[in-house]
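Exercise: predict the fold of this chain.
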Amino acid sequence: MASVSEFKVLADIGTHYARFAVEREPGRLENVQALLCDDYPDLVAAFRAYLKSVDGSVRHGAIAIANPVEGDLVRMTNYHWRFSIEATREALGFDTLLVVNDFTALAMSLPYLAPGEARQVGGGRARERSVIGLVGPGTGLGVSGLIPIDDGGWVSLGSEGGHVAFAPRTPREVFILEYALRQHAHVSAERIVSTAGIELVYRALAERAGRDAEAIDAPEIVRRAAAAESDLCVETIDVFCEILGTVAADLALTLGAQGGIYIGGGIVPRLGGALERSGFRARFESKGRLSAYVANIPTFVMSSVTSSLAGAAAILNSQLQRRAGVSSLLDRVRQGRDELSMAERRVADLVLAQPRSMLNDPIVAIAARAGVSQPTVVRFCRSLGYEGLSDFKLKLASGLTGTIPVTHTQVTRTDSTLVLGAKVLDNTVSAVLQVREQLNSEAVERAIDSLLAARRVELYGVGNYGTVAQDAQYKFLRLGIPTVAYTDARLQSMAAAVLTPAEVVVVISGSGKLNELLKAVETAIEAGATVIAITPSHSPLARRATIAIAIDHPEDVATHIPMISRILYLVVIDVLAVGVAMRRSGGRRPARDERDVEAAGGADGGPRVDTDFTRIISHSG
């Protein structure tokens, strides 16, 4: 049985050091070690070196890494390590391996900071269970936040807030902005409040003072400022701290962060008392009419070097908590292994070593990999209480998605046809599971209500999404709803102009940005029609629609042929069709006689309208 108190190993991977720890009890880190990355050829080697010092077996792991994490393959931006999450999990023999961005992990550590792991700068008092903000100047400028949720946990915000425009407040800062604009078309806050930003500010201030700037880096500027060896370096750090105060205050106002603003990253903890002596807090509280509001918000500097490890542990524990109290299939296999026959044990060992392969491979490949016959694979499943391989795979998929992050596995040129097929199917299944987690049930409910009430339904789709519109047309016609699909932009515009309030338009778009489609939507709304958009959540189409059903899948249709995204849109159409069918069954019958049915082609094997709609949808059988 899975438990959040199980033995876990945690890693915080940076450009120079890989910091490790173990967690035997929630919130308690032990055996913290920092290994030099240059001493190891890859991440697995560093992990194995650390695990040699660990007494006991490890089943779960989490990695916080200074890098974006998008899919299965992780390439470190500022270091040569690259790795597959799934291959690393298999190499280390873990049941679970979670990989998150280090700043996300840092944010998740905030509610669990112990006394002494953060010092307050200035006044203010944190409000319990309120939004918390995080700013982290380092190589870049990380920005995040935490929002409390009803079950006592927290949700972290993914953000690129460090790239908002730098807003100068003084003539000196205006000069710095003008200096930076000579080098960069867009001067973000990160250009100033970061390691490179300190060096830029130093050079700008030197030019402003009519002095030659020495060729020194940020650590040397900080050192000279702390030792008061250079008035220019002291001024640079003062300006840095003041601008950081403005950035932190902007974040506090944006989030309503009455739980406080925390300063992390690698720079500020090395400034000693310079932040307190600077104008940081004065600038933080200088917000005009809202100065009193931000004055009540406290600011803290984080000092613990293990905060990212603690945050990664919190995220991992949250993942494991989802299956706490529920029988784990892998636990069941492990515990029942000794009761199996020798041949069945080989299948059990394959499941424990490579659960994802077991999930994806056909029975022929499973039997070959385990060195047993195909009937033995089926007997193994039945010995554990499952009906067969299909039932076993279904339960395995449910267990894995509860503990292992849904990932996208890259297809390579060296993949066999079997592996290639497995990866494509696995990527599609993973994307569908993500949509399942993110689907807004309230929006779907409203869409079904609108479709049921519609006198007529029109479907708009362009390009590859035109086929989705045509598929939906077929389904809704089978359900007895007058429906037409338009896949030409001009026809969509003309059709929208003659809509009435009794009609509904379903617009399907992978980008939600096509101007022609947006104009047709505006025309439809002006005509009083209800517009249901199936599109990315932050797209212009989603903002204009009456009802938006969001599908956020990172597939760039401008450069890629829509593959997985097309499947996702078809699935959502199926959800709507099934919802309409189940509601209509037992309700009013379509006013159609046999001649109408024959005209529709039903008597000749074409589409037929059926009043018991549950009989024509496979999901109700």
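Check your answer against the key: Residues 213 and 497 are 65 Å apart (CA to CA).
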